[in-house]
């Protein structure tokens, strides 16, 4: 892990750079003003750091985006905490326009757009001053990164709040989000109507193509630069955007280029299983990582932190000294029990029949034996234990001491499979010990995702055999076999049986592998949207602890926050809210 520069100063700079000159009265000739800033390439680098830093603001990967966003919509999670009605409603497909979590995600994603726009404006303002060839190269590289990051923020906006996806040529005329390309300097400039879905995706792809040109062949090897956008990250993101818009021919070209020419490769399973836990960062599979660092001075749910507090919500629970579950941080959510069966886990329940208290002494020894055998024999998908900690079989470290994982805290239903999350949690200390500012890097783009997107593309461009091979490459790694050779676990066809018992995944290796491989990484909800799986998923998961999971056709798009509706007179709400 590498320190991520604190961004407090940069936020102030961004705000200043976006203001009109008559908004400020500069009396100190040495102070920053719109007349003398930016004055150097270093000034632009400071602004770029702020654009990157916005990725882990509280509404995004600093806190909300998983346990209070994607995990709720796609039913990755269930709620232990029952004290926030709107949080429960997120998990019931009944999001509300007044939901504070959604409002924060909306706010911080737009903050990323605004900061990218501010940097782009100031790059062009500074360009005439750049006389050194090295400065000209540097500002073009910064422009490429800024364009990529603006597209990245916009992709979250359109996939969360866009009224529809483009499916079979339909949906492009539905409401997207506003397209804003300048740094707003007045209230009037914030009154922007929603562009269409197609216009937004065209804008995203245009930014990515421009970034592709500016960052062509660029890789970053310096210790303080590895988190920066490479040329291959741009190509992978562009390929994904083409898949999301069903532009299969362009998707095939971009993704094949990454696969064949980037030099990237899937890591071995022993590396893979811990690469979400602060280990093996920037490895051969990684195309883009959000670089984080443990911050003992500021919690991850504050913008000044170098870490993330995603883990404080997901934090596991363990067996305390009294043999009862104990929280390792907030410990609000746990994996939805229906997910275990999808991984093929059918070993029964950890407590003995008739158990009324979640005491470690009530665990069935036969269950432990069966579970260990299933893991060793790989009769259950091994990725279950990459994604989750198993109660009374797995352990975590608490204040330097190994403690068994427990039945999740505050789950009174003794027959419920209440495991704990593992991805993006510390494996060497509790989130509380880390000031709830976890330093585990977030993998935003990795090769396994690209392989599966490429396989999907090939099914639409007439090459099912090669598509099946790329699906099998991902599965082979999960089971510890060499990636590029046939294995005993290979699927025999694109409709072969998977580990899942449900109609959506049981005979669809492509969908199953995207679900299992990328579980807990925030991709599945987007897949649910573009594949129109909402009603089937609601029917499979049935309920969360707060109530029944409902489904309406309008539930794919989240509601525009009420504050935005009230402040932007041109903003229209999504249907159904």
UniProtKB/TrEMBL annotation:
Q: Does the keyword Membrane apply?
A: yes
Where does the RagB/SusD domain start and stop, copy by copy? 323-577
The answer on whether this UniProt entry bears the keyword Signal reads: yes
Q: Which superkingdom?
A: Bacteria
- Name the predominant localization: membrane
The record places domain SusD-like N-terminal at: 22-242
User: Gene Ontology cellular component?
Assistant: cell outer membrane
Instruction: Tell me where it resides.
Output: Cell outer membrane
> InterPro entries, per this entry?
SusD-like_N (IPR033985), SusD_RagB_dom (IPR012944), TPR-like_helical_dom_sf (IPR011990)
List keywords of the entry alphabetically: Cell outer membrane, Membrane, Signal
Gene3D superfamilies to which the protein is assigned, alphabetical = 1.25.40.390
Per the similarity annotation, which family is this?
Belongs to the SusD family.
The protein's name is: RagB/SusD family nutrient uptake outer membrane protein
Annotated organism of origin = Larkinella knui
């Amino acid at each position: 892990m590498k320190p991520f520069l604190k961004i407090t100063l940069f936020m102030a700079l961004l705000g200043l750079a976006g203001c009109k000159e008559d908004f400020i009265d500069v009396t100190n000739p040495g102070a920053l003003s719109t007349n003398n800033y930016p004055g150097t390439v270093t000034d632009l680098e400071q602004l770029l750091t702020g654009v990157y830093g916005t990725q882990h603001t509280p509404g995004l990967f600093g806190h909300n985006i998983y346990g209070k966003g994607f995990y709720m919509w796609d039913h990755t999670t269930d709620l232990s905490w029952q004290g926030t009605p709107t949080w429960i409603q997120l998990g019931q497909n009944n999001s509300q326009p007044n939901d504070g979590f959604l409002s924060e995600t909306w706010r911080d994603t737009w903050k990323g757009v605004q900061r990218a726009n501010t940097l782009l404006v100031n790059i062009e303002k500074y360009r005439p001053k750049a006389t050194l060839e090295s400065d000209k190269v540097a500002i073009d590289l910064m422009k490429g990164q800024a364009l990529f990051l603006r597209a990245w923020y916009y992709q979250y906006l359109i996939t969360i709040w866009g009224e529809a996806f483009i499916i079979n040529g339909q949906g492009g005329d539905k409401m997207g989000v506003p397209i804003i390309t300048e740094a707003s300097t007045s209230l009037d400039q914030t009154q922007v109507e929603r562009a269409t879905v197609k216009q937004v995706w065209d804008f995203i792809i245009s930014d990515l193509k421009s970034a592709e040109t500016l960052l062509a062949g660029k890789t970053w090897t310096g210790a303080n630069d590895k988190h920066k956008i490479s040329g291959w990250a741009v190509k992978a993101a562009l390929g994904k955007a083409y898949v999301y818009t069903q532009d299969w021919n362009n998707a095939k070209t971009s993704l094949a280029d990454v696969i064949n020419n980037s030099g990237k490769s899937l890591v071995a399973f022993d590396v893979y299983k811990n690469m979400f836990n602060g280990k093996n960062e920037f490895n051969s599979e990684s195309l883009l990582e959000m670089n984080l660092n443990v911050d003992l001075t500021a919690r991850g749910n504050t913008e000044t932190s170098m870490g993330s507090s995603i883990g404080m919500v997901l934090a596991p629970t363990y067996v305390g000294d009294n043999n009862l579950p104990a929280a390792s941080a907030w410990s609000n959510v746990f994996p939805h029990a229906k997910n275990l069966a999808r991984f093929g886990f059918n070993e029964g329940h950890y407590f003995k029949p008739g158990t009324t208290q979640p005491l470690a002494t009530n665990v069935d020894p036969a269950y432990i034996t069966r579970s260990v055998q299933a893991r060793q024999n790989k009769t259950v998908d091994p990725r279950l234990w990459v994604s989750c900690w198993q109660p009374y079989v797995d352990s975590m470290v608490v204040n330097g001491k190994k403690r068994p994982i427990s039945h999740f805290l505050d789950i009174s239903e003794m027959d419920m499979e209440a495991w704990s999350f593992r991805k993006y949690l510390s494996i060497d200390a509790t989130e509380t010990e880390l000031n709830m500012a976890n330093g585990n890097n977030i993998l935003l783009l990795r090769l396994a995702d690209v392989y599966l997107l490429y396989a999907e593309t090939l099914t639409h461009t007439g090459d099912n055999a090669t598509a099946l091979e790329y699906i099998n490459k991902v599965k082979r790694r999960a089971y510890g076999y060499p990636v590029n050779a046939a294995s005993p676990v290979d699927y025999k066809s694109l409709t072969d049986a998977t580990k899942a018992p449900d109609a959506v995944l049981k005979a669809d290796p492509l969908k199953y592998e995207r679900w299992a491989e990328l579980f807990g990484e925030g991709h599945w909800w987007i897949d649910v949207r573009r594949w129109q799986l909402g009603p089937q998923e609601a029917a499979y998961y049935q309920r969360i602890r707060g109530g029944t999971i409902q489904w309406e056709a309008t539930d794919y798009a989240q509601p525009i926050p009420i504050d935005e509706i009230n402040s932007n007179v041109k903003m229209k709400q999504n249907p159904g809210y």
